[in-house]
Amino acid sequence: MRYLMTFSYDGSKFHGYQVQNGLRTVQSEIETELTRLNGMKPVKLISSGRTDALVHAYNQKGHFDFAKEIKPERVRNSLNRLLKGDIYVKSIISVNDDFSARHDVKEKTYEYKINVGEYNPIEANYAYQYCKKLDLDKMIEGSKYLLGEHDFSSFVKKDSLKEDNVRNIYKIDIKEKNDIILINITGNGFLRYMVRNIVGTLIFVGEKRIEPKDVKEILDRKDRIYAKKTAPASGLYLKEVKY
């Protein structure tokens, strides 16, 4: 029996999403408890994608199989009791056996938070403490060059390049509220560090160290050395996944 789970987590409590020997990760914590609920028969959780250490999720998605049918709400309640609060299961539904939480994704949205006000130690793990003003209009102008289908090799960690680095960015929304800049990026998929590298480059634009039109040149060069700094992981959230 296959199930699709929607869950959120505080990335600062884990060494990333993916299972790593001897380290506490999101996947290992959930799989341990799913295996317990499956009568100790090992359960593999296939997610919509991996998040790095310190990256958070509002609505991560993953599918798993059980040996026998159990009511989804019962599984949800049991998991939330066992997971002790750092991970919260929002919903579980039954799906077809050929459904894939990874391969059937149509679009994802990531959100990045930048504090441009006074330093806030309480929020240090949940928003990039940049603590200086940025030119929002220039950042918005620069972001427009990233819309559409492009080869995003310039915005991928060098050792994480794939044979196909083409992705389609559907929408980028940038706004400021109460000294927090929120950058929402929606696309058909994202490469490792892609969102954080895009944000780092847009920060350079907001600092007026490069012009908005320079974003297009960086994109066209298809080489990571031309993009700017990688924004810290702590400001990044997986916001939504759609199928």
What's this, in brief?
This protein has 5 helices and 10 strands; from the N terminus they run βαββαβββαβββααβ. With 243 residues, it is α+β, with helices and mostly antiparallel strands. It folds into 2 domains: 2-95, 2-Layer Sandwich (Alpha-Beta Plaits), CATH 3.30.70.580; 107-242, Alpha-Beta Plaits (2-Layer Sandwich).
Write up this protein:
- The chain is α+β, with helices and mostly antiparallel strands.
- It has two domains: 2-95, Pseudouridine synthase I, catalytic domain, N-terminal subdomain (Alpha-Beta Plaits); 107-242, Alpha-Beta Plaits (2-Layer Sandwich), CATH 3.30.70.660.
- The chain contains five helices and ten strands.
- The protein has helices spanning 26-37, 72-82, 136-143, 194-206, 214-221; strands at 2-9, 46-47, 56-65, 87-95, 107-115, 128-129, 148-151, 166-177, 180-187, 236-242.
- Strands 1, 2, 3, 4, 5, 6, 7, 8, 9 and 10 form a ten-stranded mixed beta sheet that branches.
- A hairpin with a 2-residue loop joins strand 8 and strand 9.
- Helix 1 (26-37) packs across helix 2 and helix 3 crosses helix 4 (194-206).
- The longest helix is centred in the C-terminal third of the chain and has 13 residues, at 194-206.
- The radius of gyration is 19 Å and the shape is globular.
- The relative contact order is 0.18.
- The model has no long low-confidence stretch (mean pLDDT 96).
How is the biggest beta sheet arranged? 10 strands, mixed
Low-confidence segments, given as residue ranges, are none
The end-to-end distance, rounded to whole angstroms, is 19 Å
Q: How many beta-strand elements?
A: 10
Q: Percent helix among the residues?
A: 10-25%
pLDDT averaged residue by residue: 96
In N-to-C order, the SSE pattern is: EHEEHEEEHEEEHHE
User: Proportion of β residues?
Assistant: 25-35%
Net shape: globular
- Number of continuous helical runs: 5
